[in-house]
Each structure stands twice: as structure tokens, then as C-alpha cells.
Amino acid sequence: MNLEHLKLFVRLASTHNISMAGQELGLSPAVASVHINKLEESLGVRLLHRTTRKVSLTQEGESFLPHALEVLASAEAARAAVGAGFSSPSGTLRVTAPASFGRLHMVGALKRFMQQYPDLTIDLRFSDTIIDLVDGGFDVAIRIAELKDSSLVARKLASDRRVLCASPTYLNQYGTPATPDELVNHQCINLMNLDTWTFDTPNGPFSIKTKGSFRTDNGDAMRDATIDGLGLSVNSIWSVYQQLISGELVEVLPDYPFNSNASIWAVYPSSRLIAPKVRAFIDFFASYYGVPPYWETELKVGQR
């Protein structure tokens, strides 16, 4: 089975456009079409529905896709194991990450990563929704959420401690809550459908349903609204550590930690093998963030 044909099929499954998929691999539309025809002939099944505007996977194509991905990963791992033409990982690494975290804590490290692995091309897509890695053709995803898909393999990159914050302006005007139950008297800024906050107390977890005049579906907007004095909000340290250091935000209820086991994960769609380029990416960023992550260290130093 021709690996180049498989690569093209995998990209078609993501782009649904034969010209676009072929262009990514340096093929003309005519050559790309021939390659897909040869792949279908070798398998004896039709993998794609074709129209003049787009292509889509047949039922057989859907069934074949995860196996094609596995074959490509196995081939890349095998070539790397014997040093077949590569001194370092190569090819295109397709990554998806949450927009806010990606901009703050990934883009700034990419220059160093790409200098270390000059044969890699990075295709980084930002999205705050959970994307299907196989359907989207991604090699790895950064996720800050509970891992629900058992077909994915996950590695923890960093902790994701969360704190209750407010601006000095808000606290001067409305006062500082001394215990979690006093939040009923305050404006609370929430992400959509996340208005119940749970804190660790000496008597065990304490949950409270918060209310406020503003809510949003974007973490950056929530942080910025908090800086502007619209209320209190729960934020990841990686999102607000610079504002806590500068004094734009103040941690509230530090003696009542927010109850959360959240972490930052790298996930990839393989149950057996991890491609060298994926391993290189995950190892790099796990080391780059550190233990504890650098934002926790900078915050501790900045608050001395």
C-alpha cells in the first residue's frame, strides 16, 4: 500500500477538497485524483463520494481512516527507529489548541521549538471547541478539560490552578468577601453554564450558585471584564498571573482554594504508537512549562 496515497487520503478526510489536499502535499489536482483512484483500486472499495465542489468519505472511507492514520504513524516510527533518512522529526505537525492559552503560552515558544527541529512545519489552529482529532486530521491537541474520549492518549503538560480574582477598584467599591458564602452579595462574572463555584473549606467542599450582570463564552473577555471592575471571576493562573503581579487583579479568598483538578493535557489519537514529531512536541512543551509551571514560579517571585 502506497504511503503517499494514504497521506493524501488522510488530508482529503480533513479538507474535503482534492485540490487543497493535493496542494498541501505538492500534487496537482489531476495527480491527486489519480492517486486516490489507485488507492481505491488497490482496496477494491470506493472511499470517497465526489462532486464538482467537494468530496466526502463513504462509509468504507470512514472505517478505513483510523487504520490509515495508524499505518502512517507506524511507518514514521519505524523510519525514525532506524534513522531512515532523518536526523530529527520531519514533515507537517498539525496542532489544535485553545485560543487564549495558545496565544499566551505556545506561540512564544515556537521559534525555539522550530530551531530545535528545523525539518518540521507547524500547522497550529486555535479553537475553543473540542475538535475531533481524527476527523480534523490533527496530530496532537492541547486540552484544558476533562478527557472523555477513551480512544485518545493523554499526557499532562502542566497543572491548571484556578483562583478567584477581582480588581482593586471593585473591592474598594463593594468590599472584599471574607468567606465563600458572602459571594451571594457580589457581582460574579461567569463563563457560560459555569456559574456554580466550589471551594475547599475546613468543613469540606462548599458550593455556591453565583450570579451577576455579565457572562461570556470567552476567558480573555472574562479576565478583561474583571480588570475593568465588573465583578469577581474564577481564572486559571496561566491567564491572570501577569495581572496579579502588576496589581491589576487581586486574589480573593486565598484561604479557600477553588476546588478543581484541572490540568493542561496533550492528547493524540493513537492507542499504540506515538509519532516522533508528536513525541518531540510533547516533550518540548512539558519541559518548557516546567514543574511547577513557569507562570506559578513567576507569580510567586512577583508577589514577594
Report on the architecture of this protein.
It is a single chain. This protein is of the alpha/beta class and 304 residues long. Helix content is 42%, strand content 21%. It has helices at residues 3-15, 18-24, 29-43, 59-81, 99-105, 107-116, 133-136, 168-174, 219-227, 237-246, 276-289, 294-302, and strands at residues 48-50, 55-57, 91-97, 120-126, 140-143, 153-159, 162-166, 190-191, 196-201, 204-209, 215-216, 233-236, 250-252, 263-268. It has a 5-stranded mixed sheet with strand order 4-3-5-14-6. Helix 1 crosses helix 2 and helix 1 (3-15) crosses helix 3. It is elongated, with a radius of gyration of 24 Å. The model has no long low-confidence stretch (mean pLDDT 88).
Physical arrangement of strands within the biggest beta sheet: 4-3-5-14-6
- Shape assignment: elongated
How many strand elements? 14
Number of H- or I-type helical stretches: 12
Q: Which oligomeric state applies? A: single chain
Q: Low-confidence runs (pLDDT<50, min 5 residues)? A: none
In terms of structural class, how would the helical and strand content be classed? alpha/beta
Which percent range describes the beta-strand content?
A: 15-25%
Specify Rg, calculated over alpha carbons: 24 Å
Cα distance, first to last residue?
62 Å
Provide the helix percentage.
40-55%
> Largest sheet at a glance?
5 strands, mixed
Mean pLDDT over the residues: 88
One letter per element, helices H and strands E, the order comes to: HHHEEHEHHEHEEEHEEEEHEHEEHH
Domain HTH lysR-type: 1-58
Family: Belongs to the LysR transcriptional regulatory family.
Protein name: LysR family transcriptional regulator
GO molecular function: DNA binding; DNA-binding transcription factor activity
